[in-house]
Amino acid sequence: MKNTSPTGTVFVLVHGAWHSSGQWAATQRALAGLGAASVAVDLPGHGFDAPLPTGYLLPGQPDLLTERSRLALVTMDDCAEAVLGVLRQVRHHRTVVLVAHSAGGGPASLAAERAPELVDRIVYLSAFVPGGRPRFFDYLGSLENATALGRNLPLGDPESLGAVRINPLSPDPAYLEELRETHYHDTPVDRFDRWRSALSPDLPLTIPTTPVPLTEARWGRIPRTFLRCAEDRALAPAAQDLMIAETDQAFPGNPFTVHTLPGSHSPFAARPRELAAALAS
Q1: Average pLDDT estimate for 11-29
Q2: pLDDT of residue 6
Q3: What is the secondary structure of the chain as a DSSP string?
Q4: Which of 60, 91, 113, 153 has the fewest Cβ atoms surrounding its Cβ within 10 A?
Q5: Residue range 156-164: mean pLDDT, rounded
């Protein structure tokens, strides 16, 4: 007997940089209340199995600025395969909706390009869409993203580290305030310490730097939705709009359905019920 959800719909949730499957938990509970099943993916180098820099949890965090990441060899292919593995597991559902947040848009897009038959709709939650420009860094460095915050968060030299490294456990109040303002400015202040402590410090450098090629015949045939975050300070609304416009220009036969959510880059932290309702609709 097939194991299906009451609505026949399952959401496959792909996190963004430094996050993990765990950050989707409140949204998943809300989706369950709406009758939808969901599965959250841990991309390689994220979640409880992620290796940390050796000094990250030690007093003074020795060598944090210079120690090469143990995730430096993680590739975009590795990340896409992690998404594909989950998509294959849930294909027995009538409708499979792939949801990507932020940097997770790269692996999710590549997975959908490689196996479009596994995805009935793809949703980008303030996420990288490689339809117009193939690398996430191409949009992060755009003029449209000039108002974004967080430029002082990366530590050391990403090329030498093999990762974009941040320090969620920093003892510097100014650094933590920048982290909060960038990603969680509308999350209750008394919950921010819990959210930052769950972040991983390293994002494999290949995720924002590897080009993701898409084709009309494969990725382009999948219905797609973009959920804009109106007060996003990590990926400016203008940069989100640029991705939507450039993708629709490159793939005009199947344009985005666009909805706007209030608030920050992290609605799964600030308003998970509203996010679940937007997804379920």
Answers
A1: 97
A2: 45
A3: -----TTSEEEEEE--TT--GGGGHHHHHHHHHTT-EEEEE--TT-STT----TTTTSTT-TTTTTSPPTTTT--HHHHHHHHHHHHHHHTTSSEEEEEEEGGGHHHHHHHHHH-GGG-SEEEEES---TTSSSSHHHHHTSGGGTT---TT--BS-HHHHTEEE--TT-S-HHHHHHHHHHH-TTS-HHHHHHHHHTS-SEEETHHHHS-----TTTGGGS-EEEEEETT-SSS-HHHHHHHHHHHHHHSTTSPPEEEEESS-S-HHHH-HHHHHHHHH-
A4: 60
A5: 98
Region 12-38: what's the mean pLDDT? 97
